[in-house]
C-alpha cells in the first residue's frame, strides 16, 4: 500500500508529533496541580526523563501514548505501510521502556503509567476518577508500580466496580527479573 501523502507532507506530519506537553500529559498535570501536588517536569537526571516527578513522595508518572509504546488496546494498530520500520521502531520503544522502568525501580522510585486509552477512546475513564487514582498513588499508596488503562485495554470488565485495568507488573513492560522479585 502506498502512502497517501507526498514525502514532504508526511515529513511535516511526523515533525508535528510532540514528545512532551501532549494533551493527555497536560490533563494529568493540570488536574494534579489543582489538587495541590507539586512536581518536576521531564527530570534530566532520571532514566527516560519521566513526565512528572514527585521527589517528596519518591513517585513519578509516565504518560504513554498507546501507539508509540505499543499498548495492547483498541487505540493501537500496526501501520500497513513500512511495516518493518514500524515494528523495529515500536519494539525499540518497548525495549527502552522496560530498561527505563527497571532502572527507575532499582533506584527506588514508585512508578505510575497512565496510558492514552485511559483518557480517550471508547473505554476511557472519567477524568476525575483517573486523577483520584493518580493522586492516591502519588501521595498515599505503598505500591511500587501501577498501570492505568482504559477498561477494555487489558480485558477489563465493563462493571462499574472494575473500571480500572490495574496490573501489578504488566507483561508488556516489566522484565522477568522484576516479576520474579515479587514486588508489586
Description:
By secondary structure, this protein is of the alpha/beta class. The protein has one domain: 3-Layer(aba) Sandwich (Endonuclease, Chain A). Helix content is 35%, strand content 11%. The chain contains 5 helices and 5 strands; from the N terminus they run H-H-E-E-E-H-E-H-E-H. The protein has helices at residues 7-15, 23-34, 83-106, 127-139, 176-181, and strands at residues 40-41, 52-54, 59-64, 110-115, 145-148. It has a 5-stranded mixed β-sheet, sandwiched between helices. A hairpin with a 4-residue loop joins strand 2 (52-54) and strand 3 (59-64). Helix 2 crosses helix 4 (127-139). The chain is globular and about 50 Å long. It starts with 6 loop residues before the first helix and ends with a helix. Residues 152-184 have low confidence and may be disordered.
Strand and helix map with partners:
Elements: H1 7-15, H2 23-34, E1 40-41, E2 52-54, E3 59-64, H3 83-106, E4 110-115, H4 127-139, E5 145-148, H5 176-181
Parallel strand pairs: 3-4, 4-5
Antiparallel strand pairs: 1-2, 2-3
Helix pairs in contact: 2-4
